[in-house]
Amino acid sequence: MKTLVTLLMLLILGLALGGGAAFGVAQLLGPPPPSGAEAHEEARTIFVSAGTILAPVVAADGRLSGYANFDVQLEVDAEKEAEVTEKLPLLLNAINLRTWSTPLAAGPDHILPDLRAFARVVDAAAQEIFGKKMVRRVIVTGARPA
Q1: pLDDT averaged over the chain?
Q2: Do residues 13 and 85 touch, judged by C-beta distance below 8 A?
Q3: Model pLDDT, residue 84
Q4: Residue of 22, 110, 97 whose CA lies nearest to 63
Q5: Rounded distance, CA 103 to CA 68, Å?
Q6: Exposure pattern of 107-132 as b/e (b: 16+ CB <10 Å)?
Q7: Which is nearest to 99 in space by CA: 118, 126, 77, 80?
Q8: Which of 6, 40, 68, 104 is most buried, taking the most CB atoms under 10 A from its CB?
Q9: pLDDT tens digit string along 72-124?
């Protein structure tokens, strides 16, 4: 019985001493630095409107199905808003150059615009104009026939 009580007391003292040491080290060294995902979330972002973009809706065979107006928003860091706004005409030019060679038609009659394909076109143009890490996301907020 005495051996069992001694082992139990050693276990409790060991846990208390180890927990106290861990708490003391954490207080001295501070919290760990944020990981990449947490640091990404802490950065303040805003949406910059690229306006309404008129784009041709081209079928996979190269046939023009019509035109569509797309409303586009670009998610960027708040401190980069002025730089992105300043270069929007270059972005619109890059989008125009890509849409003629990219099939954006969807549906059985090739009349509907493919929103995901258009978002990929805008994202590729944004990466070219602004750089790889400037635009975080491209959001297509509306699409209607022209």
Answers
A1: 86
A2: no
A3: 92
A4: 110
A5: 13
A6: eeebebbbeebbbebbeebbeebbee
A7: 118
A8: 104
A9: 999 999 999 999 999 999 999 999 999 888 888 888 888 888 899 999 999 99
